[in-house]
Amino acid sequence: MKEFLRKKDIEISLKRYGIDALGAMAQGLFCSLLIGTIINTIGTQFKIPFLMQSVATIAGTEYTVGGLASAMSGPAMAVAIGYALKCPPLVLFSMITVGFAANALGGAGGPLAVLFVAILASEFGKAVSKETKVDILITPLVTIGVGVFFSWLIAPPLGRAAMAVGNLIMWATELQPFLMGILVSVLVGMALTLPISSAAICAALGLTGLAGGAAVAGCCAQMIGFAVISFKENKWGGLISQGIGTSMLQMGNIVRNPKVWIAPTLASAITGPIATCIFKLRMDGAPVSSGMGTCGLVGQIGVYTGWVNDIAEGTKAAITAFDWIGLLLISFVLPAVFSFIIHVGVVKLGWVRDGDLKL
Q1: How far are the Cα atoms of 32, 129, 321 from residue 140, in angstroms, in the given order?
Q2: pTM of the model
Q3: What is the 3-state secondary structure (H, E, C) of the chain?
Q4: What distance in Å separates the CA atoms of residue 201 and residue 191, rounded to the nearest whole number?
Q5: Which of 87, 221, 233, 323 gets the highest tally of CB atoms within 10 A of its CB?
Q6: Are 164 and 149 in contact (CB under 8 A)?
Q7: What value does the mean pLDDT take over residues 104-118?
Q8: Rounded distance, CA 341 to CA 267, Å?
Q9: pLDDT at 221
Q10: How far apart, in whole angstroms, are the C-alpha atoms of residue 165 and residue 155?
Q11: Are the C-beta atoms of 285 and 35 separated by less than 8 Å?
């Protein structure tokens, strides 16, 4: 059996499923739901007719260009997961159907359902791939059959469970914005820096509202924090690659000296409750944006999209100067200031030395 699994490149491990597959799922979600949301926002704000009008009507539902992209989130996530799991072509292409089924049956918690179902379907598909003379029939049949079966069996409860956890976090944040602001900001921020996907976690849990705002604060604190405190070693290239790229670049240095993580993490513990208690920063855009921070400015675009949606729904009168000040302070200014001040103290204590943050 071990030899068979090795031959089929089926690796049952936390890295393969919890890091590779999860990270790929976030990319698939970004290339569908998130991009679709951004396209719709651009069309609405700049009054671009082609992006605002319906370009297709399917089963009585009208879709804009952005709507079409968002509608493909299930297939996009599943294909991305299959790619990360190194599926052969017939298995990979079959994942389109699997992703659609899992996401549809998973409801609001569809991303988590897609993660589990896509992994199962991929591995079963890989197991039978090229094992028969009618591979063109058997491999898609097995992959799609397993995927649809598990979508029917586990996607609904997984979706409900994910949403229950997400709703609990959001409810607790509304109830205790200070404590939960700290907790959510620190945990999601650390997840962003670790080799796992904070974006996928937020998407799977449907993390929005004040909790989503705290998540944005935590992610920004990690990215901007590391960009600023490592500027001496990494200069402008490091500032850009970490500030609008990812703080995950520092993982090697964190492993060598975990104390380099103190400043950005403590900064997130400060900016989180400031976001929830003072600025009431909410992420009412796509949940995946909550876990993106300043990566491509996706977190900020998500917050702005949420404002636009709230105005359209009548729950927000207008975007105020206070809104913009809060977003700028939480996203850029405060993470830079707090991380720098804390880092100076950490360096004076001798816990971090020159070169410890060199990329």
Answers
A1: 24, 9, 54
A2: 0.80
A3: CHHHHHHCCCCCCHHHHHHHHHHHHHHHHHHHHHHHHHHHHHHHHCCCHHHHCCCEEECCEEECHHHHHHHCHHHHHHHHHHHHCCCCHHHHHHHHHHHHHHHHHHHHHHHHHHHHHHHHHHHHHHHHCCCCCCHHHHHHHHHHHHHHHHHHHHHHHHHHHHHHHHHHHHHHHHHCHHHHHHHHHHHHHHHHHCCCCHHHHHHHHCCCHHHHHHHHHHHHHHHHHHHHHCHHHHHHHHHHHHHCCCHHHHHHHHHHCHHHHHHHHHHHHHHHHHHHHHCCCCECCCHHHHHCCCHHHHHHHHHHHHHHHHHHHCCCCCCCHHHHHHHHHHHHHHHHHHHHHHHHHHHHCCCCCCCCCCC
A4: 9
A5: 221
A6: no
A7: 90
A8: 9
A9: 97
A10: 15
A11: no
Q: What is the pLDDT of residues 115-174, one digit of tens each?
A: 999 999 999 999 999 999 999 999 999 999 999 999 999 999 998 998 899 999 999 999
Query: Which residue type occupies 349?
Result: L
Locate tokens 């998500």: which residue? 302
| Location of structure tokens 């520092």 | 250
Phi and psi (nearest 5°) for 81? Answer: -65, -45
What is the C-alpha to C-alpha distance for residues 147 and 180, in angstroms, rounded to an integer? 37
For 246, the token pair is 């990812």
Phi, psi of 123 (to 5 degrees): -70, -40
